[in-house]
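Recap for those who missed Tuesday's class. We walked through two folding examples back to back. For each one, the amino acid string is listed first and its predicted C-alpha cells come directly after. Nothing is annotated here on purpose, so try labeling regions yourself before you check the end of the notes.
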Amino acid sequence: MKNSRSYVLFVCISLSILCAIAAADIKLPAVVGDQMVLQQKTSVSVWGWADPGEKVTVKGSWQWFAASTKADGSGKWAVKIKTPKAGGPHDLTIKGNNTIKLKDIMMGEVWVCSGQSNMQWSLSRANNAEAEIAAADHPDIRLFTVARHVSATPLDDCKGTWQKCSPKTAAGFSGVGYFFGRKLNKDLNIPIGLISTNWGGTPAESWTNAKTLLKMPDFADRVKRISDAEAIEKAKQQYEKDLLKWQNDIKNINPGMAKKWFMPELDDSAWKTVELPSLFENTEIGNFDGMVWYRKKIDISAEMADKDMAVSLGAIDDRDITFFNGKKIGAMNAWNAQRNYKIPGKLVKAGQNTIAIRAHDTSGAGGFSGTAEQMFLQAGDKKIALAGNWLYKKSTDQRSIPKQPVSSVATNSHTPSSLYNGMIHPIIPFGIRGAIWYQGESNASRAYQYRELFPAMINCWREDWGLGDFPFYFVQIAPYANQNPEIREAQFMTYRSVPNTGMAVTMDIGNPRDIHPRNKQDVGKRLALWALAKDYGKKKITYSGPLYKSFKIEGDKVRLSFDFVGGGLLAKDGPLTDFTIAGEDKKFVDAKAVIDGDTIVVSSDKVKNPVSARFGWTNTAEPNLFNKANLPASPFRTDDWPGITINNR
C-alpha cells in the first residue's frame, strides 16, 4: 500500500514537471520591451502570445490593479492598460506560466517616423553631423528602429529594440525623426518615443494594406496575382528568362568589367585624377548618373605584407564593387552604408598594390560621401591613409543601362502591401500619438494616382490602428530635377482633403541637384511645429508657410489669397519670383507679382485677360515667397484644382 501511494505520488510529480516543461512561455512583440515609451494619459495595448487558454495578467508599477485576460485559441492575447502622465521610469510585469518584468519604461509622447530614403537618411549624414551626433545625449528620447523586412502577408512581429538616445544610438537613426523628437522633447520637457520604419526608394503602395489596394483598380490585379499559385509559377519562369537576357545585355555595355579595369597591370596612364572622398557633382565628373571606376596604387611595407588587412572607404552612393590586386573583396548596394571589407593576407604583397573600385550611382548625387578619416587600409595597428588623389574613368551612363527585370509576383520592397505587412502591421496596435512621413519621390511619375493613393494609405493606417484620425504630418518634396510639381500638388491636395494632416514645405532647403538634401534639421523642426501647434496647445506659433486658398480675377490681374500669412507675406531678397500667368490659351508667361496686404496680385503685359496663375511650377523652383515667420510658401496652380472639401483650415 505504501509503495502504491509512493508510485502515485511519483507519477503526479512527474506529470506536473512535464506539464510545466510543455507550457509555452509568454512571448512579447519586439516593440513592447525595456526602455520603451508608452503614450501618456490614455489606454494602451499590451499584447503577445502564450498557450491557448492561458491566463495572462499585466500590471504597471503605477497601477493598483492588474489587467487580466486569457490567450485565444491561437495563443494570442491582448489587454488595455491606463497610463499616467509623462514621467518615469516605471516597470511593467506580465505574468502567465512565466513572468516577464520590463524595466526603465517612460510615459510620454510616441510618434511613428516613416517613409523612403529622406526619412531613412541617418543623423550621421545630416548637415553638421559630427557636432550633432556629439550633442545627441537625450536619455528621455527613446528610439526604436524596425528592421527592414518585406512580406506577402501581414506579420505579427518585427526585429528591433528600444534604446536611449545617445551619440552612439542616434548616429544611425533617422535624422528627420531625431530632429523632430528633439524639438518636442525640448519644448515640452517630456519623454519622446520615436519608432523609425522606413525604406529608401519605396512607393506608397508598398506601405498600404491589401484591403485598401483591392479597392483601387490600379493595384487590385497585382494584389490578387500575388496570391495566385499558378500565376506565380508562370511569372517565375518568365522572370528567369528576362533576367538571363538582361545579364547578357549588361555584359555588352559594361567595358570596365569586360576589359578588366580592376587588374593591377592595366595601363591607366590616360585616366584622369580626382581627389577622394568626393561626390561626382563636386568634381569635373559632374552631374552624372552611371558607373565610374577609380584606381589607386599603394606601397605596402614588407612588415605588412602577407597579413590580413581591412579597408575602409566610407559611404559610396549607391553601389560599389571593390577589388584588391585584381581580386574582388567586397560589394554593396546601399547608398548610406559604410564600406568595410577584409583583404586576405595572400593578396597583400610588399611594394606596389592596386585598389580598384567601380562606383555606380543610379540617381541623384553619387560617389564617395564619407570623410577623409574614413578612408584607410589597416593591418593590426598600422594604417595607410587612402584619401587624396585617385585615378578615375567614366564607364557607363545610367541612361544606356537596361532596367533590371522585376518579377510581377515576387515580393520585394516595391510589391504592393509588402512593407505594410512587414514593417507597419507588426507595430500595430502599439499606442502612438501620431505619425510623420517623408515620401513621394518614388511616386512622382504617377502624381495623379498619388492624389488617391496617399490619402488611402493614411486612412488605412488610421483604421487599422483604431485610434481615430490621429495626427499625420508629412514633408512636401523639395525641389529636385526629377521631382515634378504635380507630386507636390498631390501632397498639397492630401493636406486639404484629409482631416488632421499637416504639410511641412521644404522649397527653400532642398538641393535641385541632389534628391537627398542634407538639411534635415529644418525638416524635423517644421514637422514639430505642426505637432506643437495642433496637438500640444502652442496656439501662438505659426506652423506653416503661406498655403494657397483662392483666387479672383480683377481685370487684367489675378489676386491670390492664402492661409498661414503668419504676420504678413514676405518677398526674400528682392521682388517675388516664380509666378506665371495665362489667358484662355493656357500659355503661361512670367508674371509680375506684388504683395498687397495679405494677398498677392499677379499680372503681365503679355496677358490682358488672365484666367489662371501658377507659383513655383517647375521641378527645381526655389521661390522667395515666405511669411514673416520665415516659413516658405507651397507651390500651386489655380487651374486643374479639383473642387475638394477643405478640412484643414
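Example two. Treat it independently of the first, because the proteins are unrelated.
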Amino acid sequence: MNEKLLKPYNPNETEERIYKLWEESGFFNPDKLPSRHTTPFTIIMPPPNANGRLHAGHAVFITIEDLLIRYKRMRGFKTLWLPGADHAGFETQVVYEKKLEKEGRSRFGMDPKLLREEILAFTLAHKSSMENQLRQLGASCDWSREKFTLDSDIVRTVYDTFKKLYDDKLAYRGNRIVNWCTKHQTSLSDIETERVEQAGTLYYITYGPFTVATVRPETIFGDVAIAVNPNDARYTKYIGQTVTAKNPIGELSLPVIGDESVLMDFGTGALKITPAHDPNDFAIAERHNLPAVSVIDQFGKLNEKTGKYGGMKVLEAREAVAKDLEKMRLLVKTENYAHAVITCYKCNKTLEPRIMPQWFVKMRPLADRAIEKIAKDEIRFVPEHYKKICLAWLENIIDWNISRQIAWGIPIPAKLCEKCGAGIPDIDNAISVCPVCGGSVVADADTFDTWFSSGQWPFATLGYPDGADYRAYYPTDVMETAGEIIFFWVARMIMLGLYRTEKLPFHTVYLHGIITAKDGGKMSKSKGNVLDPIEISGKYGTDAFRMGLVIGNTPGTSSALYEEKIKGYKHFANKIWNASRFVIENTENIDTNKKTDLTKKDEEIINECASLIADITKDIDEYRLHLAAEKLYHYFWHTFADKIIEEAKAILKGPDDEAKKSCRYMLRYILTNSLKALHPFMPFITEEIWQLLPDTKGLLIVEEWPKK
C-alpha cells in the first residue's frame, strides 16, 4: 500500500500539487479534453473585482460553478469555464480613494491620467493575487482564455455597442435629473442607490393661498409651480392661475397646475414643485413644460440664488430656512415624518438629485424584448420566483444613466459640442467639429458605468461577432451569480445580449443567496465574524470549506457559514481518507474490471449505491446541489463507512473465500463510484485518493461519471 495512505490526510501538502497536476494536464481547456467530450457546456465566470481579496460571496460562486463544470466534464461535455476579472470602475476607485486618504492624498486635484495609472497598477497587482486565490479554491477554469474588462478587444466591443445604440436612437445625451453623490462627485444609476428609512420632519408652509407640506424647505428658492390633483375639489378653482408665494428672500410668481400624480391625502394635497432637486417634481415639470431652477451645487451646498443661505450645507440651510419661515409666520406647523431617503450604496450619504448632461440608454425597447423571452420561459430561473422579480423590474424600467464622473473605467468615446451641447460617439477620434452646429468639440471626460461593459460580458469574452469561441460556445449554458445583482447585471446581460447577438446569452440563471454569519447577521469586520476563504481553506482544507458552502445553501436564500460547520466537513474528509485506506488495503490484488459472482447482499448494496448516484445525478441536473451534497455526505459516512465497512470487516476475516471475493469487489465498486460522485464537491481529496488506487489510470477530473 502506498505510504501516503499510512499518514493522516493533510490538505496543505496535497492541494497545490494536485492543482498543478490538473493545470499541466490541459484538461481545463475544452480543446484538450479527450475525444469523448463533444457537446459544449459553457459558463462565463462573473468576473471578481480586481481590487482586493476574495470574500465568502466569491467562494460560493466559485464552488458552485466549479462543481457544475467538473460534473459536466465527467459527463462527457466539452466544458468551457471562462475566467475573468473586473476593473469595477466606481467600486475600485472608492477602494483606492481610501488608500489615498491614508496617505494624506486626494483624487481631487490629481491629474486624471496619473490617477488612472496608479489605479491600474493597484488593480493588476490585486488581479494577480485574486487569480491565485481562485486556484486555491479549486477553480478548474481555462486560464488560457482569461479576460479582463479592460482588455482592448472587450473595450472595442463595448464601444461598438455604444455606437450602435446611438445610431439606433437608443443612446442619447440629455440634461436630466440624476442621483448625485456629493462625497464621490459622480452620478449613480437608480440601482446603485439604497432606500433608507429615516425619521424626518414634515414642514407645513403658507404658500400664497395654499398650505404646502414639504420635507425640504431649503429648496423653496427653486420652486417653479404649485401642483394639485385635478380631481381635488378643494383646489380645482386655482388650476391655471398664477399665485404669489413669499419666501425668506423675496417672493415667487408660481403657476398652479393639475397633475394626477399628486396624492390628495399627502400633507395638504398641494405640493411645491422643485424640478431641479426632486425626481418626481422633474417628471411633473417635463409633463407641463416647466423650467428647472438649481439652487444646490455639486458639493451639497446652497448656491448664489439663495441669498444669505448661499454656502450653507443642505441640513444647515434646512434648519435656518425653517426658523426664518417661522419668524415670518409662514411656518404653520411641523410633524414627525418617516420617509425613504435615497443614499449612495458605497458611502451611505444622502444623494442629492441634480439636473446635468449625461449619457442615457432608452431601456424600454430593450426591456420589452427581454420580457418577451422571459415570459415564454426561454430562460430558466433557479429559484423560480426570480422570474417574477426580474419581470417586475423590467416592466417598470427607466432610462439608464451610463455616465460616471470618475477617472477609473472605460472612457466614453464621444465628443461634446461646447456650443450646442450635443454629444456624438467618436470611437476612432475622427471628429474635430460638431456635426450638428459646426461648433468646437472636446473629448468627453466621463467613463462608462461598470455595468454597461459587464452587461456585455458573455458575448464580448467569446469574441463576438467573428470569433471561433463565439461560434462554438455562445449562447452559454448557465449564468450563476448572486441574487442581489439580478438588476445590476443579469437583466442587463439579457437585454444587451439580445440587442447585439439576437440571442439570449444563457438559458439558465442560477442565483445563490447571501452568506451570513452564524447568527444569520451580516458578516462584518467590526463584528469579527468575517471568514476569509483562503485562511479558512488553509486551516481545514478547501474540500471541507466547499462542502460547508454547498450543504444547506438553498438557491436564492441566505446561508450561514461558520468555522464549526467547516470543521465538521474536515472530519468528513478524514473519514473519506480513512475509509479509502481500509478499502485499498483490503482490495489491492483484485481485478476491478472483472466482475465477480456477488452475494445477494453485496449485489443489493451495489444497487443501493447505484440508485443513490442516479438520485444525486438528477439533483445536480435540476440544480439541487445542496441536496446532492448532503445525500453523498450521509451515504459515505453513515452507510458506507459506519455500516458497510464495519460489516465487511467480519467477512474479510472469515473463512468464506467466495464471500470475501464478493465483498472486496463490492467495497472497491462503492469506493470508486463514491470518489467519482464526490469529485465535483470535494475535488482535491478525491483526486488524491484516485491516484493512489492501484489500478486506475489517468486523472479523476476526466473520468466518466458513474452510470447505474
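Answers for example two:
The two ends are 30 Å apart (CA to CA).
Residues 625-653 form the longest helix (29 residues).
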